[in-house]
Amino acid sequence: MSAPEASELGGGARPRPARRGARARSAAPSRARRVLTPLVAVVALLAVWEAVVDLGLVPNFLLPTPVQVVTALVEDAALLASHSVTTLAEAAAGLVVGVVLGFAFAVLMDRFETFYLAFEPLMTISQTIPTVAIAPLLVLWLGYGALPKVVLVVVSTFFPITVSLASGFRSVDPDVIDLMRTMNASRWQIFWYAKLPAAADQFFSGLKISATYAIVGAVIAEWLGGNAGLGVYMTRVRKSFSYDRMFASIIIISVLSLALMKLVELVQRALMPWKRAERNSNER
């Protein structure tokens, strides 16, 4: 047998799986690239936006330039901060209540099949009603204070939490539940050690969605009445045709939504350390 044949059949074979793994790692984008690529895209978009307005392709009274938006942010920083605190407080209160109610309803839907069959279609139908249509009724029923804003946020955030948790509870492997029952585990132990960890990932996914809905829901409710909040600020500057301040408030709303989503991610990392370990092992 020749030496090349022996190397093909014997221990001289190359470790192809390891080579494929190295190729996959080299093909993955670096951290610097993941940061710089969207940053360059945003800078390019802002440059095109500025050029379009400066060249007169779009009238300036219809579309402010990025420089004008930044100027409005600086000039109204204190006022925007004050309104942001009000909106954030309403959104946080509604989000907490929505999470508590969603968790309670998801547990009941998992525990009682009749409750699930009766409530699931009603909950789905409720999401077909536009939020803008509910807000005037809440203001009419509950007044112009903070209560209708909080209730609208609860309505907006309740559905993602309930659906994600109920789906997570039902995703548990039945064999795991049968095994725990053979070990004489109680319903509480099955829920705590099997169902709750299985639903945690889906719960935080729903919570991220609810966090964005919370800010938007509070702003929509503020459009229709109130004395403070980003929605009230947007209504006032819109009536005065100050579109640069309109864009400034939109930026603040986006920043608040992203901040809430990032907070949810930090909480998820703290409460689910095994997900971080799995991610690190996959990156290796």
Describe, in plain words, how this protein is organized in 3D:
This protein has 284 residues and is an all-alpha fold. It has two domains: 16-63; 64-279, MetI-like fold. The chain has helices at residues 3-9, 16-27, 31-54, 66-75, 77-111, 113-126, 131-142, 147-170, 174-182, 187-223, 230-239, 243-271, 273-283.
How many helices? The count is: 13
Summed over residues and divided by their number, the pLDDT gives a mean of: 83
- What would you give as the CATH superfamily of the largest domain? MetI-like
Look at the structure and give the CATH class of the largest domain: Mainly Alpha
Q: Report the order of strands and helices.
A: HHHHHHHHHHHHH
Q: Assign the CATH topology of the largest domain.
A: MetI-like fold
How would you sum up the major sheet? none
SSE class: mainly alpha
Question: Helical percent range?
Answer: over 70%
Q: Compute the gyration radius: what is it?
A: 26 Å
List the main descriptive attributes of the protein structure presented here:
mainly alpha; MetI-like fold; 284 residues
Topology:
Blueprint: H1 3-9, H2 16-27, H3 31-54, H4 66-75, H5 77-111, H6 113-126, H7 131-142, H8 147-170, H9 174-182, H10 187-223, H11 230-239, H12 243-271, H13 273-283
Helix pairs in contact: 4-12, 5-6, 5-8, 5-10, 5-11, 7-8, 8-10, 10-11, 10-12, 11-12
